[in-house]
C-alpha cells in the first residue's frame, strides 16, 4: 500500500468538529477585518450563458399528467457564465462578461442584477428583437434535486456580433479567460486571441457540446462534471479518463472533476517529468487517498499525493499529483437548492488561480463557496462575499 507524507489532510484544514464550532462562534468583527484585501487588478473575462431563472419549489417532483402547486416561486438571474462571474466578483475579482440578451424586460433585469454585483456588462450584446434566454427550474424539497428546462435566447450570438475592437478591449489586462462552452463560435474566436496573447484559459466541460473539442485544445485548466471525463475519453474509469485527458491535451495544467456531495478529484500535471519516480497505478492511488480522508469531518478537506508517474492501464502514464477533495456535509435542514453549485465552485477556482492559491487550499475553498450557495434558493442568492465568516480561514 502506498503511503506518502503528503497524503494526510493539511493542518490548515484539519480542525476537529469541536474546534471548528469553537472557531466559528468566536469569530468577531476583528477577524473579519483581518481578511486580506481584494487582489488588485485581477481581471477575469468570461464568455457564455446568462439567463433568467424561474425557480419553483415543490414538495415532490410531479408524476406525468399531475397537477401540483409550488410552495415558493422566485425569479433570479442564472446561466453558467453569469453565475460563475457573479461569484468571482463577490470574492474580489474584476469580472467582465461577454454574452447576449434581448432588449426585453428579462434582458434588462439580467443587466441590472449583474451590474449590482459589480460585473462589467459593457461587452454584452443587446439585440433589438427576439427573447432573452430563460430557464424553468423545479426544486424538489423531498429529494433535494433540481430539474432545469432551458429556452435559448433568440437570435443566438454569432462572432460578428462582437466587434474586434470590443474583443480586444475585453481581453486587455485579463488574467484569465473562462468559457462555459455556450456561444461556442464566438467563444472560439476569443479563445484563439487569448491563446495568442498567452492569457490562461479555463473551460467548464459540463457535457459534450458543439465547439467543445476546439476549446479544450486551447485550455490551460478544465473543470468538468462527474460523467464528462469518461464520456469524452470513452475510458472505463474516472481516474483513467483524467490521465487520458492530460495525455490528449498537452497544454492542460490540471483537470478537476466535481462529484457533488462526494467532493472532487483533481489531476495536476507536473511542471517537470518525474522520470526517476516509480510508476504508480492511478486507480490504486485514488483508493489510498480515499482511505486517508476523515469521514467524520463535516467541513471540506483535501488529501494529495506526491508528484509521481501516474499509470493508467492501457492508456499511458503522466507525471503529476492526484488530489481528492471532500465536500461540506450540509445538514438536511440547511440544504435548500443545488442550482448553480458547480458555477460557484468554478467562480472560486477562478479566484484561486488568479491569486496563486495552492491546489490543496483551492479545492476546500471552492467546496466551501459551493456549500454556501446551496443554503439559499437560486444560483446566486447564497453566493458568499469575501467577508463571509465561513471563508475567513482561506483568505486571512
TrEMBL record:
<dbReference type="InterPro" id="IPR002139">
    <property type="entry name" value="Ribo/fructo_kinase"/>
</dbReference>
<dbReference type="InterPro" id="IPR002173">
    <property type="entry name" value="Carboh/pur_kinase_PfkB_CS"/>
</dbReference>
<keyword id="KW-0418">Kinase</keyword>
<keyword id="KW-0808">Transferase</keyword>
<dbReference type="InterPro" id="IPR029056">
    <property type="entry name" value="Ribokinase-like"/>
</dbReference>
<dbReference type="InterPro" id="IPR011611">
    <property type="entry name" value="PfkB_dom"/>
</dbReference>
<comment type="similarity">
    <text>Belongs to the carbohydrate kinase PfkB family.</text>
</comment>
<dbReference type="Pfam" id="PF00294">
    <property type="entry name" value="PfkB"/>
</dbReference>
<dbReference type="InterPro" id="IPR052562">
    <property type="entry name" value="Ketohexokinase-related"/>
</dbReference>
<protein>
    <recommendedName>
        <fullName>Carbohydrate kinase PfkB domain-containing protein</fullName>
    </recommendedName>
</protein>
<feature type="domain" description="Carbohydrate kinase PfkB">
    <location>
        <begin position="50"/>
        <end position="268"/>
    </location>
</feature>
<dbReference type="GO" id="GO:0016301">
    <property type="term" value="F:kinase activity"/>
</dbReference>
<feature type="domain" description="Carbohydrate kinase PfkB">
    <location>
        <begin position="327"/>
        <end position="385"/>
    </location>
</feature>
